[in-house]
Amino acid sequence: MIVDWFDTNLVSILNGFAIGSLLFILAVGLSIVFGMMDVLNLAHGALYLAGAYLGYQFAGDTSSWLGFGTALGAAALVGLLAGGVLSTMTEPLARRPHLDQALLTLGVALVVAELLAISYGNDVLRVNAPPGLDESVQVFGRTYPAYRLALIGVGLMIAIAVYAVVERTTIGALVRASVADRDMVSALGVDNRKVKLAVLGAGSALAAVAGVLGGPIYGAAPGLDETVLILALVVVVIGGLGSIKGAFIGALVIGQVESLGRALVPDLASFMLFGALALVLIVRPRGLFGAKAAG
Amino acid sequence: MSTPADAETVATRTRPVGAAIGLLVVVGLALVPLFVAPYETTIIGRILIFALLAVSLDLLVGITGLPSLGHAAYFGIGAYTAGWLTINVTAEAPIPLLAAAGAGALAAAATGWLAVRSGGIFFLMLTLAIGELIFQLAQSWESVTGGSNGLYGIPAVQLAGSPLVLAGLRYWYVLAVFLIGYAVLRLVSASPFGAVLRGIRDNEPRMRSLGYSPFRYKLVAFVLAGAVAGLAGGLLTAQQRLVTTADLGFTTAALALLAVVIGGAGTLWGPCLGAALVVLIRDALGPRLDGHGPLVLGLVFILTVYLLPRGFAGLAGLRFRRRPAEPA
Asked: How many domains, in total, are found in chain B?
């Protein structure tokens, strides 16, 4: 029975993992910046979209490792720079209500998305997977795009890398301490602004890289920024602010809801997303792995 | 409870002047169809509708201290309800509007109990997520909403059996409902209930220790705001006789919040001015910029945050002690 069920839904389950992988890369930066600085970066989706268009720019015409690699590098660089700019822009607002910072990033998101729409038009643009990954492989007797399998692997690697950096290094300890008590870290003589700059830069770079990685699946099109922003927000809310483990579990859950849920009960997909959100928040108002006193 | 008292003093001090200006504005608005061309009249009607949405959002953002980025959802639900009823049941005047307000309230109650458990930025994020889920629902539920094609071919609203086809008549209908909706929110804001909402905004623990249940008050405010947003949505249907998913999308929600912030949160009249600016940029300037109005709106957003932290109301010299802030 169960084996049959798995066999029928294998493709959906694998898709769920691929989406979850992508969502984790997106959400982890959002979650840490939010947990640490209370900065809700609503430009996160726009950064993803910028990454997707970079993917089109370098890997839109032909399938090549050079093009895809260049796109990834360019996205990381653009993301880092954008994170720096956002950090500088929100700095004068540090003493103002957090809502102002969110509104500022919302304005930036509108401007960036519109500039991208002006430059690239309204069509869905294609991003090619690198050679070797643009074919299908056999998984338990079913054909499945190799790229998505690779994406699951890349997501896992990034998860392990982020986890190792944040949980096992001095810099990571600083980030975790800032999530727990920003003022205390500042009192110990650490410049909060530098930590914020670093985290916002890294988070934004991850968002732009996710845009390139998601390109071969979703392409690049206007409106994608909102879709991924919402999914990433739901992941962060479910997982808990500032928690890497939370972002990981949340991304896996939402990935399956988006893929397996859509496949099993297509009409109720939106309800299921809301249902998952509501369920977690009733049981754990701060998310699965959120700190009790945070917020 | 010092801030509600302060706000009350401000309101009392400015009441005669404010009332005179208000009356002049209402008379001016009522005369619009007599002196202004139909197209411009329609634009002003759109401003009124968007202003009603913004004022209902101000009840949450400015008065209760709950910044919502999903408020367009209840606006859109009202619009779809009114549209569906007008097509399938009746176009007779108050019914689609009342149903729209009811649907907005119901949807707000169904989602608000979850959202108002949180506050501050967390609330912003939750309402954004909820709004987007309702947007997706509208897009996939094609048998009722028409999906991405929208709900079109909606008959003109009827008043006592005769359809309001002329732009001027339709405008007066919109204006009358706008004034009723605005008056309701004004009364709520000036009532003891409004004072409790301000108290919750400024110091929630203290209100709780005084014996008020913040959850209940916030939920009632949320449902009320949803009802008025639904009413505004019903007006939208009456005005443009077409509902699309864009009307309840993220951009509409963000622009409503922009209207509130740029006008001055917590003042109710400020967001109306904000709405006017937003609609003028989106609907009047936008087409001239090849539909890239959002670019200008994004820039306005950024400039507002830096230059006008208290909105137009701040320019008018009305200083409130602080903007609705989230608990630290």
From this structure: 1
| CATH classification number, A2-283, choose in 1.10.3470, 3.10.590, 1.10.357, 3.30.2310 | 1.10.3470
In a domain, B105, yes or no: yes
Binary contact (A110, B254; C-beta < 8 A):
yes
8 Å CB contact between A192 and A175: no
Q: Is the Cβ–Cβ distance between A199 and A33 less than 8 Å?
A: yes
Residues on chain B touching A258 (C-beta within 8 angstroms): none
Determine the distance in angstroms separating the CA of B169 from the nearest CA of chain A, rounded to an integer.
36
* Backbone torsions φ then ψ of B249, nearest 5 degrees: -85, 180
Over its length of 328 residues, how does chain B's per-residue pLDDT go in tens digits?
Answer: 444 444 444 444 556 787 888 889 888 888 888 888 888 888 999 999 999 999 999 999 999 989 998 999 999 999 999 999 998 888 888 899 999 999 999 999 999 988 888 777 778 888 888 888 888 888 888 888 888 788 888 888 888 778 887 888 889 999 999 999 999 999 999 999 999 999 999 988 899 999 899 999 999 999 999 999 999 999 999 988 889 888 888 889 989 999 998 888 888 899 999 999 999 988 888 777 777 778 888 898 898 888 887 777 777 655 444 444 444 3
Complex ipTM more than 0.95, yes or no: no
Kindly state whether residue B184 falls inside one of the protein's structural domains: yes
Q: B192 CA to chain A: closest CA distance, Å?
A: 26
pLDDT of residue B14: 57
Residue-number span of the structural domain to which B103 is assigned: 2-250
Phi, psi dihedral angles at A60 (to 5 degrees):
-85, -35
**Nearest CA to A234 among A293, A281, A292, A295?**
A281
- Torsion over CA of A104, B306, A113 and A60, rounded to 10 degrees? -90
Query: Searching chain A, which residue's CA lies closest to the CA of residue B310?
Result: A100
Structure tokens at B39: 């197209």
Judged by CB atoms closer than 8 Å, whether chains meet at A237 and B125 is answered as: yes
Does residue B64 form part of some domain? yes
B125 and A233: CB-CB below 8 Å?
yes
| Beta carbons of B261 and A103 less than 8 Å apart | yes
Q: What is the domain partition of chain A in residue ranges?
A: 2-283
Domain assignment present for residue B51? The answer is yes
